[in-house]
Amino acid sequence: MPEVTERARDLVGRLLHGHGVVARITEVEAYGGIEDPASHAFVRTPRSEIMYGPPWRLYVYRIHGHHAANVVTGPTEQAAAVLIRAGEIVEGIEVARQRRGPVADHALARGPGNFTKALGITSLDLGTDLLEPVPVYLGERVDRPTLVAGPRVGVRLNADAPWRFWAEDDPTVSAYRRHPRA
DNA sequence: GTTTAGATCAACT
DNA sequence: GTTGATCTAAACG
Predict the structure, then answer these.
(1) CA atom of A154 to C1′ atom of C7, Å
(2) Which of A51, A116, A149, A161 is the most exposed place for a label (fewest CB within 10 A)?
(3) Is A43's CB less than 7 Å from nucleic acid strand B?
(4) pLDDT band, very low/low/confident/very high, at A2 (cuts 50, 70, 90)
(5) Which SUPFAM superfamilies match (predicted)?
(6) Is the C-beta of residue A103 closer than 7 Å to nucleic acid chain B?
(7) What are the tens digits of pLDDT across the range A84-108?
């Protein structure tokens, strides 16, 4: 199992600050870069170049008119990154509600698009150093939940790799959906 | 050849 | 009703 999966597991239970909102990460997916056909870094281009750089930087990409946030974790030579799929809002929940509209609290940051919207993350945050305390950055571990692993959501390539990790029985975790053509 | 904007639709709530 | 490491086409360098 690639090293990136270990780093993905380490992110679950940690805090992520985003524009005045803080979320406890509950669900992530590991992307193995050059070893993973589903990764944007599988082909090295200017867009994916950031994943070939130093760890703890933010990679943001657009999808379906929304954004998705990734933490570049390394190992650098593998261009690995971890997609943040869901979290529980633990601070700034009023701001998150305002950004998301009338949805249940456990759904404020459930799903990649919703997560970035609740934390106000856009392509403007691309390349942010997540160790510097503004405006998007990683916080400390506040929880060490029981982790469950399974295949990633909605990926067509490498669809059976069990590189999705989430906190067991957590209501903020999104549901598994297999890609129709996978 | 790459990147971005918009759209689509099966499976979710 | 909502969502999304998909898909296509047009714009870019």
Answers:
(1) 13
(2) A149
(3) yes
(4) confident
(5) FMT C-terminal domain-like
(6) no
(7) 999 999 999 999 999 999 999 999 9
